[in-house]
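Need fresh eyes. Consider my entry:
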Amino acid sequence: MNRNSNTPPVVKNLLIINILAFMAVKLLPVGGLLSEWFTLSLGSPWFHTYQYITYMFLHANLEHLFFNMFALWMFGRTLEYELGSQRFLVYYLACGIGAALVQYGVALLMGELPLFLVGASGAVMGLLLAFGVMHPNATIMLLIPPIPMKAKWFVIIYAVIELFLGWRGVGHVAHFAHVGGMLWGWALLYYWKKRGEIYY
């Protein structure tokens, strides 16, 4: 199979599910209810455990969806081929859940509950981390500004920026969830490597 021209099954299905979920919330008459049921609503009466999974498939707007899906497609294809479909899916979901747990912990410490989360950003940041760890010297072409950068430096710079923005409380963005996705991703890769299940 040509890795450059084919999208592997887990990445393909994740893309489809995210797009369909976005359309359902935005277009269906019950879209508001779907958003209420499946948004991760920590510290609120609407919280359910399943929301740790479902929140990853909802997005606030088209821009939010586009950038997450573009990154999933860009980095996920290579990682799924290398990790295998089952391990890739476990990794993706673990990063998304871990991202939410880290953001929840920070919100709890800062007294910022209830907390409402949507988006695949935490899981996608885990993919970015994995790509940087497994292909540190691969060149990534940034969109803004359009300059090339080695993956390892891009990951480090991005993580530092997210930590700074989270600490400063900039924007209505779950910056610590992004960092959390990276941290859980690194821990899982390290665990698999120590067990001899993956190599990089």
In short: The radius of gyration is 17 Å. Residues 72 and 145 are 20 Å apart (CA to CA). Residues 9-194 form a domain with the Rhomboid-like fold fold (CATH 1.20.1540.10). The mean pLDDT is 93.
